[in-house]
Specification:
four-stranded antiparallel β-sheet; binds glutamine; 387 residues; 13 strands; alpha/beta
């Protein structure tokens, strides 16, 4: 890989994110963007209204460092209502600039140079970069299609004297896997046995179609060693607002807040009021988004199968992974770079989510958080891509 001049050795190889590259390609070619995960329809009007009202009411200066009271309370009520987890909104909830900052601040606050972060690959792209910024490295257990499961022996073998924390993403991007209760129990047992902190990325907590989302923090011995992270971007279809949060013990939150203070200090003042209003929506809102997305999942999975791809239907998130080999293609990166010109669709190559890129070479991710007519048109175009 080419060395980037000026860039510190810690960040060599991270380059531009695949989402930025592919979204720029979509703009340049006018292709349908099923790459970067963002919905093409805005979220609930009352959530937008609450943000507008907050601007009009003058909530436009720095919000408090831990986040506005209304949002911290709404997060605490949400965790209790949906997941039966109790957090003190004044000491155990920290508002961040999206889940991205909560993850970055957690790794920067909790990892020493040389530490290892145990996680499952494919991994969301910011994990490796954030670990690198903290001077830590990822040690991965690989999840493989079709079921993306793992053996407890693999997990236990990945724990070393340098392991500082377990970083878990469920529901999982890019595979759409929702970790099962048994798998979570095993991860919890490993954390307790080795006295590890867990940092969980649950941004897709409400986008689940098969099985149940269960926060790792709810397993025995986990409440006080887990940092539970989520954000309003996916749940309320406002990905540009960047309102996230972390819930944990006062001691862990204090550590993460120390790092967070010097990353953004604070962010998204009026949007925090918007997301607080979102979290207070009736329960029907949350079940409806999952039901609607499930239809979209089935629509795109059916279409991709008809187009000749080998599809692994996701249990959660708004992404589906497909194997491109039945089309006569073998390299997902080359496929995704050519796809916009060849047929006017953008997707993301899963290889970028692996430390061992060969594991994901033939896999490509499509986002289905788009209007039905957009999904149908993308499928129509993809039907011409077989070699
Ligand atoms: N984690 C995962 C797994 C994601 O897919 C995303 C994408 N948005 C994020 C974190 C970042 O969330 P946010 O936009 O709230 O920073
Ligand atoms: N989480 C989104 C995805 O996986 C992208 C967010 C980003 O561009 N960083 O597509």
């Amino acid at each position: 890989m080419e060395r980037a001049p000026y860039l510190t050795s810690r960040l060599q190889g991270f380059g531009e994110t695949i989402f930025a590259e592919m979204s720029a390609l979509a703009l340049r070619t006018g292709a349908i963007n099923l790459g970067q995960g963002f919905p093409d329809v805005d979220g609930p009007g009352e959530v937008a209204d609450a943000a507008v009202a907050a601007i009009r009411a003058g909530h436009n200066q720095y919000p408090p460092g831990i986040g506005v009271r209304e949002l911290r309370h709404a997060v605490a009520v949400h965790q209790s209502q949906f997941w039966d987890l109790d957090y003190d909104p004044d000491l155990e909830v920290l508002v961040t600039a999206g889940a991205t900052e909560a993850i970055a601040a957690s790794l920067l606050a909790l990892c020493d140079v040389g530490d290892e972060v145990l996680t499952f690959e494919p991994t969301y792209d910011s994990y490796g970069a954030c670990a690198a910024m903290a001077g830590a490295t990822l040690r991965v257990v690989t999840l493989r299609p079709p079921d993306y499961t793992f053996h407890s022996t693999e997990l236990r073998a990945a724990v070393t004297p340098k392991t500082r924390l377990v970083l878990l993403n469920s529901p999982h991007n890019p595979t759409g896997k929702v970790f099962s209760r048994d798998e979570l129990e095993e991860i919890a047992r490993v954390c307790v046995a080795h006295d590890l902190v867990a940092v969980t990325d649950e941004v897709y907590e409400h986008l689940v179609f098969e099985g149940d989302h269960v926060p790792l923090a709810s397993f025995p011995g986990m409440r006080d060693r887990t940092v539970t992270i989520s954000s309003g971007g996916k749940t309320f279809s406002f990905t540009g607002w960047k309102v996230g949060w972390a819930c944990s013990t006062p001691e862990l939150i204090e550590a993460i807040r120390t790092a967070k203070q010097f990353l953004t200090y604070v962010s998204s003042g009026p949007f925090q009021y918007g997301i607080a209003a979102g979290l207070a929506l009736p329960e029907a809102y949350f079940s409806t988004i999952a039901r609607e997305l499930r239809h979209k999942r089935d629509r795109l999975c059916g279409g991709l199968t008809e187009a000749g791809l080998d599809v692994f239907p996701p249990a959660g998130t708004y992404f589906v992974t497909a194997d491109i080999r039945p089309l006569g293609w073998h390299d997902g990166l080359a496929f995704c770079r050519l796809l916009p010109e060849r047929c006017g669709v953008v997707a993301v190559p899963n290889a970028v989510f692996y430390t061992n890129r060969d594991e994901g070479r033939h896999l490509v991710r499509f986002a289905f958080c788009k209007r039905d007519e957009v999904l149908d048109e993308a499928v129509r175009r993809l039907k011409g891509i077989a070699r």
